[in-house]
Amino acid sequence: xxxxxxxxxxxxxxxxxxxxxxxxxxxxxxxxxxxxxxxxxxxxxxxxxxxxxxxxxxxxxxxxxxxxxxxxxxxxxxxxxxxxxxxxxxxxxxxxxxxxxxxxxxxxxxxxxxxxxxxxxxxxxxxxxxxxxxxxxxxxxxxxxxxxxxxxxxxxxxxxxxxxxxxxxxxxxxxxxxxxxxxxxxxxxxxxxxxxxxxxxxxxxxxxxxxxxxxxxxxxxxxxxxxxxxxxxxxxxxxxxxxxxxxxxxxxxxxxxxxxxxxxxxxxxxxxxxxxxxxxxxxxxxxxxxxxxxxxxxxxxxxxxxxxxxxxxxxxxxxxxxxxxxxxxxxxxxxxxxxxxxxxxxxxxxxxxxxxxxxxxxxxxxxxxxxxxxxxxxxxxxxxxxx
Length: 387
Ligand SMILES: Cc1ncc(COP(=O)(O)O)c(C=O)c1O
Prior knowledge:
Elements: E1 2-3, H1 12-19, H2 25-39, E2 46-49, H3 52-65, E3 74-78, E4 81-82, H4 83-91, E5 95-99, H5 115-123, E6 128-133, H6 143-153, E7 156-160, E8 181-185, E9 198-202, H7 226-243, H8 249-258, H9 278-290, E10 297-301, H10 305-314, E11 317-318, E12 328-329, H11 334-337, H12 345-353, E13 354-358, H13 364-380
Parallel strand pairs: 1-11, 3-5, 3-6, 4-12, 6-7, 7-8
Antiparallel strand pairs: 2-9, 8-9, 10-13
Helix pairs in contact: 1-7, 2-9, 3-4, 5-6, 7-8, 10-13
Bound molecules: pyridoxal-5'-phosphate.
């Protein structure tokens, strides 16, 4: 059986390592300096934070406090994203502007917006002062084209590495080593996964954290609720995967949610005053050292997604937790995102037709299973003008 969610990227050894991890300030400091060095930021402008959205919000607030942009300015974000990104932009006091996904010359819709789209948005909106690139699924953008637009309009670039830590742009540079600020998420299912957490690195030497943020005075995570949730999720999820064989996993997950022992990934909080734990820093540090230039997920555009997922489920492939089922996911937050569907038709189409495959299964048996799932998906795949 293969899964997309439920911490299916955790092996039994990972679950053990995660649940009983013990870290110290030494690990925390080592992760901070490793990230500062890797992404070319000063240590004083690098901080480990509570979540990916906290990192994005802090980076944007730093753009404002450094006088590079002002409250109310507009920030371009991918028209196919997580509500976390939207939340971060708004919490920084800025306005998100959605950019529609790129359509390649062969008609295929790609999971990111293009530099041309960025430029056309700027031409109609003089308040756009910054843009976020997320390289969805680890599928990289043509960064050189974006750099031209950035230079022409004096924009700030935030590289969001939630999906693409360790990946490279087509010109060979590592993602996260190009923009003005680099943000990482260590959330569930991300390139680096410690269930929650994040980091921010201000790369531009003219940027610094707002005076209201003191990275040496961050609070520790609460001992109840928050901390056990981060510790035990991989174990809880492994039990859910086991129960799914008898279709009982939803009762187990429902109970855990009710007890507040777990929370949905999209409900991770934005907390500017709370730090990553030492043990999560230790786990993240290990993962950073093991990073490879591999995509986070494979993606396909299919004709009839419902039928495709149904057939996949019939063969034991649980691939429903795909990214993203709506242009601003998850669906329960979509309405409040006020997504401009008429301006982003490619994103609307893509979100309604995309299917993902996991890339983390390694054993020959698992690889055979993923190949069998891919074969099913290929039968539903859209060819030609739409994909
Ligand atoms: C593209 C992208 N960026 C940032 C985040 C924020 O991550 P976090 O849940 O750690 O706040 C997400 C979360 O799903 C995401 O998909």
